[in-house]
Amino acid sequence: MNRFFVFVACLMMAGLVVIVCIDLSLRSFFNAPLLWGNEVTEILLLYITFLGAAWVFREDGHVVIDLFTAKTYGRMKRVLTMLSYLCVGVVAAVLVYYGFYTTCDHYLRKVFNPTVLETPIALIIVIIPLGSVPLLLEVLVKGWKLLSAKSQPPNHK
Fold first, then answer.
1. Segment 62-97, tens digit of pLDDT
2. DSSP 66
3. In the chain, domain spans
4. Measured distance CA(146)–CA(21) in Å, rounded
5. Which runs of consecutive H residues, i.e. helices, occur in 31-126?
6. pLDDT in tens, 32-72
7. For residues 54 and 140, what is the distance between their CA atoms, to the nearest angstrom?
8. DSSP label of 154
9. Beta bridge partner(s), residue 112
10. Residue 46 carries which DSSP code?
11. In Å, what is the CA distance from 116 to each residue of 16, 35, 58, 112?
12. Do 113 and 119 form a contact (C-beta atoms < 8 A)?
């Protein structure tokens, strides 16, 4: 599923680049920007972030401050890594729970974004819980592997 999400995120990134280039050209040469350009790029940035979060976590691609783990080895490094996974897991679980709750609430109340496109807010924020579910699963998998492994945790890139 992560590969599909990353593929969709890549397509969205390409679309975002096209929209920004067209908007910039129209704004510069004809003084007529796309009225919906900013709104769509903001939504695409949100979607790209949450579609790629689980894959980036799995690949250890996040920016990591390894101040505490850089000089530790063995059991202490494993404990600190597990604590880090626990923090990410708690945040992901909160995003799943409250993301679904908030999305359902906005959907039932028919809340719209007061902009040119009048996009339903539920359609915008639904990606938060949907993208956080794979992130939570990746945290559980990496945590399980760390607990069941006999060697040291992997070094961050």
1. 777 677 777 888 888 888 889 989 999 999 999 999
2. -
3. 2-148
4. 44
5. 37-58, 74-108, 121-125
6. 999 999 999 999 999 999 999 999 999 888 777 677 777 88
7. 11
8. P
9. 120
10. H
11. 18, 7, 38, 11
12. yes
